[in-house]
């Protein structure tokens, strides 16, 4: 997600972005892929809602979900990166750089300086097909606020009629990157895949978390984000793995696909 000047946003939205960023970062331990992909999913839903004059409409429900999703992008977090002495990192992408033609993928990577060959099947055996891709810029920030550019990353979206999108995020491996604590490892051939399911609950500002929910938060299986106008829940399912110094994340939201079906997609990618 791009850093922006939030002074033009409503104070409640700005406060929600800032306060939730630190909390969710500590819980999630530096995984940009889910934040980036989920934010894009919400943004597309907002962009698809337009008035007859072509003006974008952000209704209360989508706006508040966007607040919570933005918090997941880990703005202003304070975790220490093992490499480069950074105290936090920032990343972002722009719809202006997005492509929807599979034939343009290699050229997009070259144009934006992606330092690896993008691994992206045009279609998967289960019917999911390439829909779009965009470069993702990233930077590490030191204690004085100085930014150091990091290698460009890639975010890809695959679609299948009647099913939620599947997002794939590719980046050069980072020494500080580790699987989420609750991720379950699966060894398939030479690759170790980590499967996880993350339950997100978006709640109003006055929501009081239950003892059971707090235990789930402490265990890293539930992420509660404040600022929504109504309670909304999402289950984000993902698989992460590394190969040839590239880190991959394949993820989707509220999907009927099983762990085995998602693993099949991951394995298929490595045979591409």
Could you explain how this protein is built, in words?
This protein is α+β, with helices and mostly antiparallel strands. The protein has one domain (6-270). The protein is built from 6 helices and 9 strands; from the N terminus they run αααβαβββββαβββα. The protein has helices at 11-28, 32-47, 60-72, 105-111, 211-219, 259-270; strands spanning 88-92, 129-141, 147-160, 163-172, 184-188, 191-203, 222-226, 232-243, 246-253. Strands 1, 2, 3, 4, 5, 6, 7, 8 and 9 form a 9-stranded mixed beta sheet that branches. A hairpin with a 5-residue loop joins strand 2 and strand 3. The two termini are 29 Å apart. Mean pLDDT is 75; it is low at 1-31 and 41-83.
